[in-house]
Structure prediction request, 559 residues.
Amino acid sequence: ERCNRSGLAQDCAKGYEGYLCMDCSQDYFASGGRCFRCDTSVDASTWRWRAAAVGTGAVIATAGVRIFFPRAAVWGLSGTKFAKELKQSVPLLLQCCQVWAVLSALAVSRQGRRQGKDLLLPELPYIRGLSFSLVDLQGTFNFQCMVDGAAARYWISLVAPIVPLLILLACGLLELLSHGSGIPKVLLVLSIFFVGGASSCAKLVSCKSYDAGGEELGDFAFQEMMPSFKCSERATEVWGVFLVTCFCYAILVPCFLLYLFAKQHFVLRSNKLCVSCSNLKMLEEKELHFEQIPTEEDSQLAELKDELLERRLVAAAVAYAAVFLDGEVQVALKDSTVTVEGQSIHRTSDLFQLQTLESFLVDLAQAKEHGSALRCRAITEMLLERCVLFEKCELAAPEERERVLGGAREMLMKYAVCQNVWMEIVLKLVTISLVSVVQNPQAGLKMSLAVTLVMATLVALFRPYAQAQVNNLQCSCFISLSIAAFSFSLRVPWLSRLSLILPFLVALAQVGLPESPEGCASRIWQELEPQLQHLPRAAISASSKTLKITVRRAERRPT
Prediction:
């Protein structure tokens, strides 16, 4: 389409010029890998309006789910199981689509050229637009027809990796002006714009070293983003922008997330000092209490304040009920203990054959055969961490509140334990590695397959998220990306489309699944936690589809 015969500039088709006819002529603009006339192309106009509609709709949907959804009812589903799953699934699906578009660069690999096929994916420009990068959106809005096309492409290429960083800087300034308000927006911006910004940064120094037939161009290799210039003609400002933005995406952003990891570790250390004990009173009744492990600095047992202790007791009771009980559950607080009474038991466990949880833990360390009890302890730890976060971010005096963890609280609570926030660091590093290796036509496929399959294995083994459905979806996303890398490299359109659809099918398939104990405990605790301060006056309750928990204060024992 671009070249009439030999590929020289004078033999380019109408609207094309430059090296290998890769640039657009005057009064033409680049969009979706083709050149369109500025004033008469109906196809280009249609593409721009459709891409603009898709991009705008995706921005509104993502931002609405992440920011406004907790405060407003959406289709009457606010607070329901489906709404919570949707809120956690949308960012994963968006990032999967963004990385899928990045992997489409593997279509120029040598394996694909040997097939002698063109990759015909009309939807690819739309998916690329979901990265919200100026490089991918420049054809949507007719910038190249307002000024000289080559100059527009040059400046858009320079500005594209800077724009997300400027938005992050604005969020940082907002945090300085209003403590706790900027960090949630920083995390939101990273979830939407990080892939597009990192990809624009990598493309800034990417060169086209092979022609469509797979022959090396040698000294005629040209810059991918600026086809009017050879690779040997790269300007100083291009290198400057690349080095600065690469440092921000590859170093500063992961370091910020590493700071969050370290911050939650030190703040939540006190949570590790609490242990729960149990005393089996009868088959459906369990008595729990807390003790504090002495530290090296203080050899004596330090007692928790009454209201803080009660929160931990109720959290342990919710975890126990979510794993072992069903139907109506009564939780009674008395002195420093909590009694859990259930009507029915929906999971059997050898825990009921033991007298104390301490003896159970000894057997667990030796045999590791009691999965339900181990799951109960994991859910208890998750809820205890949420207790500490609530105390540090809400109940503490204004001058003592943890504003950093307060801003990142929503992100931390999506993990099974807060220390699993390491997953955010790994995801950013994986994005950096993928946008870098796809530019290499030699090893791009092998590296992409290695990265995506290793990540799928890690998610399947460690299960870092609190919701089982989210773990399954994240694992399926990486599996689909590995399929996409393979299909793009071989230029197999139907397999590429299948890899894009697979995560959405997994998300839909999980909608009707029963709620996991982790999800049940998390939802019930979210309802109970704000009500605990009213506990002395009246009983409080919260429920899921299969479990209802009522918390009351029992009468104190006479002295």
